[in-house]
Amino acid sequence: MTALLSVSDKSGIVEFAKGLVALGYEILSTGGTLKVLQENKILALDVAKYTQSPEMFDGRVKTLHPKIHGGILHRRSNTEDLKIAKEYGIADISLVCVNLYPFKATIERTNDFGEIIENIDIGGPSMVRAAAKNFESVLILTNPSDYKEVLERLKNHQNTLEFRQSMMIKAFEHTANYDCMIANYMNKRFNGGFGESHFIAGKLVAPTRYGENPHQKGAYYEFENFYSKDFKTLKGEVSFNNLTDINSAVKIASSFGERPCVCIVKHGNPCGFAIKSNVLESYKEALKCDNVSAFGGVVAVNGIVDLEFAKTLNQIFIEVLIAPEITQDALKEFESKKKIKLFVCGGSTLKFPKDTQDFKHIEGGFVLQDSDFIETNEVKNAKCVSKKQASTQQMQDLEIAYKLASLVKSNCVVYVKDSAMVAVGMGMTSRVDAAKAAIRKAQEMGLDLKDCVLASEAFFPFKDSIEEAHKVGVSAVIEPGGSIRDDEVIECANTNGIALYFSGKRHFLH
């Protein structure tokens, strides 16, 4: 029995090779893998000696040889294949352990295109695909996490066809992901990220009980390792809908750096947000915006959840709590709440991946775009187009409202007062309807909107939204500007003593 070992990630390879030798395998190896094995006194034969063909072109060609690929690919049940293998001295290679040159690590480390090109593996994917194609006779491994199980199965004569089939699928996933990464990188480098093809590749984290509805299957995947490494479940089981709401809540709460903010989300939109002196006070203020919608919602806390916070949160039903840390005392307090789900991510504050591109599924395909974001000084650099200017506190509130508006479904308006959201209108077919809906909800909650500020993620096409804002005492407004009726909107703001700022940038979220 012969095993071919050639790996870039050498973690666990020594122990794995020792296990194979103990089971009677002869080891073929190359380059750095061979050196590691020999340094650990593991008997291994250099592929170059086996093939009688030296490595060429700085290692670009070393395993591309009939003795290697013939040993992997020939069909053990095919008489003609066996005859040819014997004629050319091609021995069986029944186990192939390969993982590929670290292309991802290389592009993260350097922009040197020559070095990047040299870290595109050729022989590795060829061997992986060959072994996967011939899985009926060959066992293929591409991940060190499988070494232990493989040794156990070989030892206990459980190297079944079904197991080799599962490893075959992993292998093709491995090479597919590798090729997708290279193609996307090349398109990003030479075509601005939008080439003839675009590939979306994710790794399964876990299935969900179902999708948006019980009759739909569901699962969640990750691009890197955020959800498997940095997103931890402390209580409950995350659902498909939980994940989409968590995404909205944490994107908002993590948009304010280390400030102790709290965001409450229901069905993908915020129904509460505040930044106060600590997270407990922020939660209390956030809850005032819409404590009806908050029932059964998702709460993202940009700070540590302690016992006092837990007791306060337990006063209503919250389905999901996510924070960078939940203390042991708080966890004990939550034990009495059977249905609450608890998750942590980040460090001292919430951290979330910042994907550079965004896509949405449409029937028959998807639309792709650069991710939207608020520039650091976007509000600070906004142009005051009114006679009146905003105060320092109003500018702080405008920044909060503007960031929130960029993350609320269009058409939307967001009202903020003293660093807390006091009203929000979202997903409406007209902007003035969003303004009216927000005001009506705030009035139902008994909230005073006098001297609050207002942000819109897109321009006001008419002055009617400013008129509605004036009725409830809005003191300052920020919007992108760009309407053919901007002059009317500005005149209305001046007539009603409202400070009006144009940012010059729209932030639709559909």
Topology:
Blueprint: E1 2-7, H1 13-22, E2 26-29, H2 31-39, E3 45-46, H3 47-51, H4 66-73, H5 79-87, E4 95-99, H6 103-109, H7 113-118, H8 123-133, E5 139-141, H9 147-155, H10 161-191, E6 203-208, E7 218-222, H11 226-230, E8 231-235, H12 240-253, E9 261-266, E10 269-275, H13 279-289, E11 298-301, E12 304-305, H14 307-313, E13 320-323, E14 325-326, H15 328-334, E15 341-345, E16 357-362, E17 365-370, E18 383-384, H16 392-406, E19 413-417, E20 420-425, H17 431-444, E21 453-456, H18 464-471, E22 476-479, H19 486-495, E23 499-502
Parallel strand pairs: 1-2, 1-4, 2-3, 4-5, 11-13, 12-14, 13-15, 21-22, 22-23
Antiparallel strand pairs: 6-7, 8-15, 9-10, 9-11, 16-17, 18-23, 19-20, 19-21
Helix pairs in contact: 4-8, 8-10, 13-14, 14-15, 17-18
Overview of this protein structure:
The chain contains 19 helices and 23 strands. It has about 500 residues and is an alpha/beta fold. The strands form 6 sheets. The protein has a 6-stranded mixed β-sheet. It has a 6-stranded mixed β-sheet with strand order 18-23-22-21-19-20, with helices on both faces. Helix 1 links the parallel strand 1 and strand 2. Helix 8 packs antiparallel against helix 10.
List the main descriptive attributes of the protein structure presented here.
single chain, Cytidine Deaminase, domain 2, six-stranded mixed beta sheet, 38% helix, 19 helices, alpha/beta, Rossmann fold, 510 residues, 3 domains
